[in-house]
Amino acid sequence: MRTALVLDRASDSPLHRQIYNQWRQGILTGRFRRAERVPSTRELSTALEVSRSTVTQAYDQLIAEGYLESSRGSGTFVCRELPDELLRPNHKQVPRTEATPPLRLSRYGAGLNEDFSYPPTPPGFIRFTQWRPDLALFPLPIWRKLVMRRLRSAEPELFDYADQAAGYGPLREEIAAYVSRSRAVRCTPEQVIIVNGSAQGIDLCVRLLLEPGDEVAIENPGYHGAHRIFAGYGARLRPARIDDSGIVIRDLGKKARLVYVTPSHQFPTGVAMSLARRLELIEWSRQHNAVLIEDDYDSEYRYSGPPLPSLQGLATGVAVIYIGTFSKVMFPSLRIGYVIAPPSLVPRLRRAKWLADRHNPVPEQAALADFISEGHLERHIRRMRRIYGERRNVLVESLERHFGDRVHIRGDAAGMHVLASFEAGDLHDQTIAERAAAAKVQLVSSAAYYLTAAPRGEFVLGFSSIGERSIREGIRRLAEALR
Q: Which of 150, 235, 286, 300 has the fewest CB atoms within 10 Å, measured from its CB?
């Protein structure tokens, strides 16, 4: 064990006294924990480049005063009860700490006032507050096999710094081919940048494209993670309403430098942007020279209607940045997403990624490339689309059975959640959530996703990670609680 002690050899204080003082102070302030083993005199003398007798002299004094204790054959340890405590009434420990002066935060740091965490779920609760993949159904044996195959390959480059911050070459090729056939995205592998999920992709784009005070048009309601990223860098947020065709173009104004949209399955309303509205948005962007960020976070799960092409694939002469992630189709802890950028932005985005964290773990990127190339990803998506579609059907049927015309459902054509608006009289959202909790059902209001006043009685109901039986029981409990 190496212990960081600093000796001043020019000081008038003897070396053994300096060692004694630093050990005593460290013990009293909690730096060295009670009953913790301390280095032997030989180890410490070697580390500090002093004679062993100097260390022995300091240790002997600490042992004599009751800070250290020696056990024959085991070593020397910090005492469990310290002499300073024995002199105080009731032996109450008073921590000794040096106050840290107040830190001057940046505008970004000062704005980070909330922790981002999921609420705990008590036992027996049915949780509609998650719209994440059902991890029990992921083909973990296949994924484990692919990862282990890569780890056993003994290719040194998998464990070294990556040659390119943009990501593992074969994975970028697979992603380019995958989004081309599934989402009609037009790109080359060189335009693909591997990132740690869609949030990092948004963050990097903001760094490159916005100055504090620039205006950003965003969906209202919309993904609050993106709202916080934009606001954290000092952007002025311009909320734009969502109607049945998607973002309302006349709400975008004329000054927005960037527009953030989730057109395939708008979050949280679930609306899919119509083809006409997509073309209208592209034309607006062309007229105002604005950049579009297309967050395609769960487009794989569409249950009815024809698939709609991506904005990126439709746009010509307009800068569209396409962002995707594997967190929703595979598992959240994978933390692999991708940004498909216009060619002119790629070099800057690659350098920004390198400064942020160099690159994503290469072995996982290599395993993911195999997972896609061998057809496992698309087979898994087809299976989960069927299962999630059945769960979606059960949720909608249960809501209609128990609530009838007292509930309005949006966004059930795709994705992993729906937006349900309940007619609950004078009940506030907090009261509805509390009544649901009393029935062991967990709900989340949509209010957090609005930048303006939120409608009453509107809740986001996730269904992807809940079994059909639990969905039916949860809605039955909710109806009883609100009756």
A: 286
